[in-house]
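Hi R.,

Here's the chain you asked about this morning:
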Amino acid sequence: MLGNKQIILWISLLFAIVFGAAVKWFPLHAEQNRLQRLPVKGLFFSSQSLPLSQSEMSVFGQAPVIKRYYRFGRHSFVMIVVDGSANRHAVHDPLYCLQGDGWHIKSREAISVDGGQADLLRLSRNGLDREAVFWFSDGLSRHASMIRYWLQTTLRRLTFGLSDPEPVMVILQSTGNEKPDWRSLLHQCDFLFEI
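And here is the predicted structure, written out as tokens:
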């Protein structure tokens, strides 16, 4: 006769198999239309699409990604938005990815953005200094916590997409030696918070 622990283990195994099969039968839809809502130009800004590098293509795979160069007045930045709903492995911790790409993180600071907070990073590599701002957005709130992102995506998968929308990762990086006033720039770029 099976003991209680063995029964619980067999039931857990059966549940995991059924759940895994259900996830395969009912795939979650990508948030592609949220990414497409990002405007290409506006009254005070313009942008152009940029191709993904070979390393970016290998990291992001088939996940929907938008990479653009934005010019906003005298400021410019490169924006990458990644939707991991079809491939959660495409979204990596930005700190890990930047360091893996050879950047040294000199400082990290939380800054307020519409609907939450983002992280401002000061970076250096081979004598170059850059700044980057990143956050995760579910369309309603924003945060810079990888753990919270994982919890949100796990809950979404457990509920077959009935919980909150899939968070997307947004990364903005300065260009050249320019150090934008990110707080002011983000306040003016309200279109970034429509995703």
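One quick note: The chain has a mean pLDDT of 84.

Cheers,
M.
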